[in-house]
């Protein structure tokens, strides 16, 4: 991994790992214009056997606790348009679009039925913008925890046969890559009240976000423990502070100032630590294809390299407890 740096782009690292990528089927959630998901697909397009872009292409709906009405959000994700643009750049690319709303268990189950191919790499990338007000998904889960964690937990459980199918030959270790954030360091799993239903006044969008991102790290940790001996691997990662993504747009300049990330004039503190979308995609490619990290199954990455997770993010007891809670909330047995 010495050839990678914090300034490497996803395209550069994909070119370096092209022999690892060739022949592989990759599924990534959350592919929309000007997103990290789009850039990852662009980087992999010249080499992957198949890329499945699983993303919503319609208005997302959530329930706000202060209003019982179903409120459609205005942002529409144009997945097919995004994919068509990538294919125009790389005509040899084999990309399949599957409609998937990660905030809806019904949509997740329907999408999983469409996916019959073996999956060598599953990249759980989709995330909802941080909701200022406490809100629920259509299944009654707190929006960020329900989408960013529970949605991907359910999807991964449904695609476990596809991952095992890819591992059947014994010469490939399929991977589940969970996109977390450095924000997981401030996260706490509210085991008694994950939806803020008992204590709604404790909700803040950053608190909900941090809980969901810690859950992503713990999911990889426990997945590696449970399925490592069956030839599967999982990694979580922080792509960096990214300028220009839909997720980044959900954090205001005032909030960046409040959390010490921006100066009073709105300029970034430590501007060199912020990444462009092409650079942000690099850690995805390392987590998905770099051979040397398999010895550290379950680990966390940042800046295109292995990195220390938070103390809670390395806590195997918490990871096991979260897995049991996720099973219970979804009514499944992963």
Automatic annotation (TrEMBL):
Q: Name one GO molecular function term.
A: oxidoreductase activity
Q: Which InterPro entries match?
A: NAD(P)-bd_dom_sf (IPR036291), SDR_fam (IPR002347)
SUPFAM superfamilies the UniProt entry points to: NAD(P)-binding Rossmann-fold domains (SSF51735)
What UniProt keywords apply to this chain's record, in alphabetical order? Oxidoreductase
For this protein, the record's PANTHER family field holds: RETINOL DEHYDROGENASE, RETINOL DEHYDROGENASE 11
What family is reported? Belongs to the short-chain dehydrogenases/reductases (SDR) family.
Give the protein's recorded name.
Answer: NAD(P)-binding protein
Q: What is the lineage of its organism?
A: Eukaryota, Fungi, Dikarya, Basidiomycota, Agaricomycotina
